[in-house]
Fold each of these.
Amino acid sequence: MRAEKNNIFYGIDWTLVILYVLLVAFGWMSIYATSVTEEDIPIFNLTTRYGKQLVWIALCVPLIIFTLFFNSKFYERFASIFYFISIGSLLGLFLFGKNINGATSWYNFGFMGLQPSEFAKAFTALAVAKLLSDKQYNLKLVKNQIKAFIIIFLPAGLIALQPDMGSVLVYLSFFFVLNREGLTLNYILIGSIAIILFLTTLLFGPIKVTLFAFTLVSIFVLYFLKRNKGYLKFNWPKVLSLYAILGIFVFSTSYTYNNIFEQHHRDRFDILLGISKDTKKIGYNTQQSIQAISSGGFSGKGFLEGDRTQGKFVPEQDTDYIFSAVGEEWGFIGTSFVVILFMLLLYRIIYLAETHNNKFGRIYGYGLASILFFHVIINIGMVIQLLPTIGIPLPFFSYGGSSLWGFTLLLFIFVKLDANKSYDW
């Protein structure tokens, strides 16, 4: 037994590993298709983007081995330290970070850049798992909810100051984790209602939305009064507060939209909601992406046969819009295959998380699944114009060492936790 425990590969779930390898391999093929030219066909041309990505993929091997080397108790014991290191790395950007495309999100080491926000997600997941796995911790207590919110939104706030709003949105995924561990659904419900009110206010204006919202609340009040035969049992202060909150939120939407959102964010929302036409070609990337995907049809045009991909029609196609390359070259079959791979990966993670004997492993597993789910939904939704352009990578697919290493670390910490669950707790 001791020899088995000393083997870093003992007990690991090979299904997760195979799914990871398939996604990374398919991702690299897509990056190769988007960046290759007639002059640099050789695969090991390290001056190209696909060549650099191949190096980063190769470096994932020692990263995986290093991650699996430590006992799973190590990650639980030092979760807080990892979290504070990630906070320090985010703070350091304001002194030593490099500004790229208006965001100070990178450390520049000359030969490579490093984006600490990609690793902060893994360390935040560890910190949340550490906090919630405490036997004395009860999420139903407001003070404990506040502790969890601070851990989640502290890194999110620092990332927002860079600014990198796409990465900030991912931290909302931790509400699924909190809900699994006992947090009321009211938070998710309130958040969903707020988003609906925000978008409908942009479309129809505050007066119409306020009247509609007040009408719905009034119908609910009348239904309650009729069912309970009287008003004495009804909590009128809460009802009046609800009316006030709804009115304030709706009428503050315009101020928030015009003064807090950046102009490019407003442009993207206006185009997505049909408020304005894209006369400035702000949605050019998305339009080209949709055309590339639709041109692929059912079975695609074939590897390296996509004329829109080969012709570089889609800007940033090897990063945020990598899914469009899959759609053009592999068609509906290819895109369905990629989505199925992600679904299988998420299902396997949740299944394994539920089999954990220890809360720490289960909670971390749900954190991993939630983060991956948010990334996949937002990225693909953006590429097919169901969501506004936000700019977050597709896990294991998009070009970039920080993104690939961050997701690899995030996944293989869980692989190690799962491998040790039978004897480590």
Amino acid sequence: MNNPILLANLRSIPDFPVKGVNFRDVTTLFKNAECLKIMEDELYEIYKDKGITKIVGIESRGFVMASALAIRLGAGIVLCRKPGKLPAETVQETYAKEYGTDTIEIHKDAIDENDVVLLHDDLLATGGTMKAALDLVNKFHPKKTYMNFLIELVNEGLNGRKPFANDDIEITSLMRI
């Protein structure tokens, strides 16, 4: 899709959080009302006929558009968070990162087998966090699962779709850079 207005408003911060990383800062898109509207409209067009009943927003930038889209689609929102942030009983998934492991969790009663789920996050780089989120959601055996990112890094050799090669899942991105 690569809307030129979104691309023009996306901030890149070199050497953040570590040297050699070109951080894509979506907060510049979130603070701009026109960009928010464009993203919401584009996401709605992709998912309006998919029967989405729950949108899983990945902490924390994934919460923003997941919430806006959930309202427009008439779907619920499920927060996927780091441990200790959700108040009720949770289901967890631990995954490997470049320097150790991390864990994400959602409420145990958040999804059921009748749900059609959209997993949403701001950025696909290596795919590690989203793969863990997908594995976590799959524990609930929903009817169907989709995956979306605002940005997919395709020109940096990270091969972010590789972790999903064996998963039967439709993956979309609003911007591929």
Amino acid sequence: MLIEAKHIQKTYKNSRGIRVEAVKDASLRLEEGQTVGLLGSSGSGKSTIGQMLVGQFPPDRGEILYRGQPLKYPYRGAERREIQILYQHPEVSFNPRLTLYSSMIEPYRLMKRRVDREVLIEDIRQFGLYAEHLDRFPGELSGGELQRAALARILVMEPRMIVLDEPTSMLDVISQAQVIQILRRVQQTRHTAYLFITHNEALCEAFSHRIYTISEGVVSER
């Protein structure tokens, strides 16, 4: 077992100060090298679960175990590196004032890996990106290009698990297929686990090994 959530809950206060239960009762598990789908409509609480799993904030109740041990917030060390998230809107992962090259070298430095332009060119080629992309700013890239760059950047950290939060919903059909193909290839070669958060039932069924559904903050397994 890689990660397991046990009866986690999360409550927010809305703009009027009223308490809203975003996640009422969620239990799910994810094994090494597995893709687990989390299928639900907008506002069902699925993204909140993903954010709790990657350590953006803790659950109000329940617990999350990683490799059998309770996670402590904020995540540090290996846990922070090994649990990553790919957002629905890839532009949030990049500083709009930096070129792609400047953004891409950051994780290499964090991992103390040698990096220069030639290394980056070689690494991004497998994601359908090329030398000319490195000199562009995020706003000059298409949604598909930016999402592939975000994934390439995450993988430098050598994650064991990636929360995929609607990673293809903002892309055209061709770009969706490219991202899914890359994710499958990465899983085959690196044995990376995915929590695939989506509202697209057909894609969820095609891409996932197991599926959970969420409705009004309550999770159940199919």
Amino acid sequence: MHVAIVSVGDELLAGETTNTNATWLAAEIADRGGTVRRIVTIPDDRVVIADYVDRWREAYDAVIVTGGLGGTPDDVTIDAVADALDRELVVHEAVRERLVEKGRILRENRPELFEEHDLELDPATGARLPEGSRSIVTDAGWAPGCVVENVYVFAGFPEEMRAAFRRVADEFDGAATSRSVFTPVPEGALNGLLAEIRDRFDVAVGSYPRKGSAPGRVKVSGTDADEVADAVAWIRGQIETVDPPAED
């Protein structure tokens, strides 16, 4: 399964917020046998978001969009996704009812938020989703995510994004698998080895050096677990290998 990740937010591009969402998602998808092929960070711009979603939904099995689902004027992600898929925004009544209840509980538990900040929550706005979409509502936050065609839309707050992803995680299962070999051999001395691996086995291979005296890592990936295992065994017979560093 080939996946593209679109991170939305002016604050990400300004360096005010670290984009941990994309890193976390990529690792989760890889653990499930999927492959992330593209990651991009773009501004809260309705036209730009719609353009990426429209192009990438045709190129990849799934597109994940995170960020821009709140109730402020710069939160335009849902509108942009609807534009990309040429769908109207409609109020999901079940989502609206759930948001009404969440708002009631929040007002009871945190009345100061409403009194001091003149806060008003509009359930109808939060429940507007592209027509035909499948909503993702969690207890972690206010704004619901959704799935429409092969586009998955999650909130930008990490805890909310992770809760939403876990609801659909099984849909990202794939056949990819990977194994790593650690070696003290310098990366520059591995060029011939890496080229020969690609000739001998139907796998992808990458070399990742470490700082200081820490061993480097050779990662072998593929869709055939036996082929990956054979490639790893061959590598171990060609170069010196060591146990993984403690932090790994």
